[in-house]
Amino acid sequence: MCLIILAWKARADLPLAVAANRDEWRDRPTRPAHWWEDHPELLAGRDLEAGGTWMGITRGGRFAAVTNFRDPSERRATARSRGTLVSEFLLGGETPPAYLARLAPHAGEYNGFNLVLGDGETLWYYSSREDKAREIEPGVHGLSNNLLNEPWPKVVKGRARMREALRDEDPTPQLFELLADRSFVDDTQLPRTGVGIDWERRLAHSLITGADYGTRSSTVLIVDSKGTARFEEHVLGAKGEVEGITVDGTPSRQGALA
């Protein structure tokens, strides 16, 4: 993922709400969200190149998502795939702090990353740049390709839009609107991450378009106070058009996780 806006225990009847965009090169082979045949308890998309995923949830209530840390000077082609961090946690049984304690000594084997992990009771954040695990406090948070709540324009706007969406009984429609945002961002607000001004402008939006690289999918996850989850993914084309929808792993069908 390259944008994750989440509300953790910000509303009593919806303890977790997540709106996330996955930005990736369009030629990287991917399978949309589905129940994995080799791990039927796991609902997630799948990176068909390295085998991991960018965001997922299990029937037992485990949740995980990852973003990269944007620093082109530190990128290594030999690094391990960050998507395996998500699938490894989801398929395991460790608590988030236990998993992160085991991961920390090996974090340097991956290119820079941010990881969000939850077990239904707690939600944790770890950045390889900080090398420090911390529990996420109740409230609305945002994560892109820097540290948690770094005030990049799309993070600031995304958090504000999440707060607005939570006023609706079902925030899902507003959260997809949040993920589709392409409003103007002034150059003075852009971060300087080493990719050049043209790429900074392109990456500043929540929704990134383009035939080579862009937002491949938008996902909204809602978990209610009974532990019932709804996982809706929109697969997007190069212009941001919706090419497919899955709800709880089923194409174009309403439903809820048991």
Structure description:
The chain has 258 residues and is α+β, with helices and mostly antiparallel strands. It has one domain: Penicillin V Acylase, Chain A, CATH 3.60.60.10. Helix content is 17%, strand content 35%. The protein has five helices and 14 strands. A seven-stranded antiparallel sheet has the order 10-1-2-11-12-13-14, with helices on one face. A seven-stranded antiparallel sheet has the order 3-4-5-6-7-8-9, with helices on one face. A hairpin with a 7-residue loop joins β4 and β5. α3 runs antiparallel to α4. The longest helix is centred in the middle third of the chain and has 13 residues.
Layout of secondary structure:
Elements: E1 3-11, E2 14-25, E3 30-35, E4 42-47, E5 55-58, E6 63-68, H1 83-91, H2 96-103, E7 113-118, E8 123-127, E9 132-135, E10 139-143, H3 153-165, H4 172-179, H5 197-203, E11 213-223, E12 229-236, E13 242-247, E14 250-251
Antiparallel strand pairs: 1-2, 1-10, 2-11, 3-4, 4-5, 5-6, 6-7, 7-8, 8-9, 11-12, 12-13, 13-14
Helix pairs in contact: 3-4
Average pLDDT metric? 96
Tell me the Rg in angstroms.
Answer: 17 Å
Can you list the strand order of the major beta sheet? 10-1-2-11-12-13-14
In N-to-C order, the SSE pattern is EEEEEEHHEEEEHHHEEEE
CATH class: Alpha Beta
CATH architecture: 4-Layer Sandwich
CATH topology: Penicillin V Acylase, Chain A
Count of DSSP-assigned helices = 5
Briefly note the structural class of the backbone: alpha+beta
Q: What is the number of strand segments?
A: 14
C-alpha end-to-end distance = 25 Å
